[in-house]
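seq/struct pair 1
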Amino acid sequence: TKDFMQALMMKNSVLKTMGETQLIMEEVLALRLYTGPLFEKYNIVNRGGALDGEKTPDFMKKRFRELCGGNDVSKCPNRYCTTNFVLTSGIVKTSKMTKSETVWRGISGGRLPMQFWKEDGTGVRGGV
């Protein structure tokens, strides 16, 4: 739609001003689908797609087969490889426009490494 294209042009204008690579339509569409109806399919590929992995819980393997067409052993399930690649590219690009904020996570009995406490070159700290 017209509004969709205007929003894309505004985001690309910001990225261009920052000297960053602009978004392409495929990235925007992948991001939109990921934040909507296809989130579960794309996410289960990353969580349960390693069907032969010993550490992947059985319920995740089962859900992956259900959602991605892997119930028939003779057929290869859809792992959305290209979509996940494009989605990752879009996330990396849009993350350049995100302001760092405090995020609280509950932990117990652990020690955080020194790089957690020191700011990196972009002024961010706390991510490991």
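seq/struct pair 2
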Amino acid sequence: RVIDEKMKQSNISKAEAEADYNSFLENPPIYYALEKKEEYYMALGYKDVFEGMIGEAEKEGRGDAMREEIAKFKLQSKIKAYSVLVIVIVGFIYVQGIYNLDPENFMKGGLPDYSRR
């Protein structure tokens, strides 16, 4: 039923509709939407989503505002990525410090002992 509706809405073949629906089921909705957005902008001739968003915003006369939004988004993404990296590195150094203090008793009792079986 869903595939038939997709075929009617988009005027595509049954195989294309099935492939599209399977892609929707395999990917979480946010990734599916991003993929479709990228396909849309690529079909318009843009090299990526950001360039497409800027190009379409320039047609509406708000290209500078869109550039600022994209720059802000990229900056926030970098901050989040570096924050995760710092937390992982600090956690590793902390665990290594605990191990170096007493390697004999490190996580003793915390992990199951399968050597007795």
